[in-house]
Design a protein that fits this description.
Elements (H helix, E strand, L loop, with lengths): L11 H17 L19 E3 L16 E3 L3 E7 L6 E3 L6 H9 L4 H11 L2 E3 L1 E10 L5 E15 L4 E3 L10 E6 L7 E3 L2 E2 H4 L2 E3 L4 E9 L4 E12 L5 E6 L10 E3 L9 E5 L6 E4 L1 H4 L1
Parallel strand pairs: 5-16, 8-17, 9-13
Antiparallel strand pairs: 1-2, 3-6, 4-5, 4-8, 6-13, 7-12, 7-14, 9-10, 10-11, 14-15, 14-16, 17-18
């Protein structure tokens, strides 16, 4: 990457430190996720099926038939909060959106609206947690969670937005190397689900703290496929799509040189807002 241009009134060491911290965190594999164990997430399930009654006598009218959820697993992906370098394939053009970038959003909802509108993406790394809970009354064995790549292309070089300002014991820390053509969740360099599975009794769950990295000059989008066995031993799959309200969780871009971005929004002289830097200033 080209040497970063020096922002007005801002020491070069300070400007380099922010990007250096991100690069060091990625290469050292430091996870910055917020993790907490989640159980009892069965309040919202799509549809129900009625058990077949085997008794010869009809049940009493006052006793409704027992029901089981059509999908026994509830899977929730929760993104990490915090500032990061963001890129987008879209340019920030409207006066209203430029005001949010330049002066900062008045509310979190306003900021998330802009990020969602331009489909903002993190650089090099995303961090999130996956909570899987058995919402049925029978045991379920989770045998694999597979990242399914839906897009792989050149790294995004349209818009860069710099940030302003500057794993729990009951979770399973895993890594995801998106530079691989067919990535898997790994632990200590070995595929996690190749060595073991997760058997969940009724109401039980587990949490995976994920650190997904992409160090090459590509852009990747993916979704998750959760493979599990029901009580009869039949295998099923549940697809989990990107849950990100603003910055995408299941998408990440590699880095390009600063001068290659069409638009580069960096901190202004005060450090409290942003301005658009020309290519000459970034060289």
């Amino acid at each position: 990457m080209s040497e970063r241009r020096r922002a007005e009134g801002r020491p070069e060491a300070d400007r380099n430190s922010a990007r250096t911290v991100i690069a060091a965190s990625v290469l050292a594999g430091v996870s910055a996720v917020i993790v907490s164990f989640i159980t009892g997430l069965g309040s919202s399930v799509q549809g129900f099926v009625t058990d077949v009654l085997t008794d010869e006598k009809k049940p009493a009218a006052s006793a409704p038939p027992h029901t089981e959820p059509a999908i026994p697993l509830k899977v929730v992906a929760i993104p990490e909060e915090g500032g990061t370098f963001l890129v987008s394939e879209q340019r920030v053009t409207s006066p209203e959106d430029r005001a949010v970038v330049i002066h900062g959003a008045q509310t979190q909802a306003e900021w998330e609206h802009l990020l969602r509108k331009i489909k903002a993406t993190s650089i090099n790394m995303t961090a999130y947690k996956i909570a899987v809970t058995n919402v049925s009354s029978f045991p379920v064995r989770v045998v694999d969670i597979v990242p399914v790549i839906t897009r792989r292309s050149a790294a995004i070089d349209t818009t860069m937005i710099e940030p302003l300002g500057g794993v729990a014991s009951d979770s399973i820390p895993v890594q995801l190397n998106l530079d691989n053509r067919y990535p898997k969740f790994t632990q200590n360099g070995k595929p996690y689900f190749t060595r073991q599975s997760q058997v969940l009794k009724a109401g039980e769950g587990f949490v995976m703290a994920v650190e997904a990295k992409l160090l090459g000059r590509e852009y990747v989008e993916y979704r998750l496929k959760v493979n599990y066995l029901d009580r009869k031993g039949s295998q099923h799959s549940l697809v989990v799509n990107d849950p990100g309200p603003g910055v995408g969780v299941f998408r990440v871009s590699g880095n390009v040189d600063d001068e290659d971005y069409a638009d580069y929004w960096g901190p202004d002289k005060s450090g409290q807002g942003r301005r658009l830097y020309s290519r000459e200033e970034r060289e």
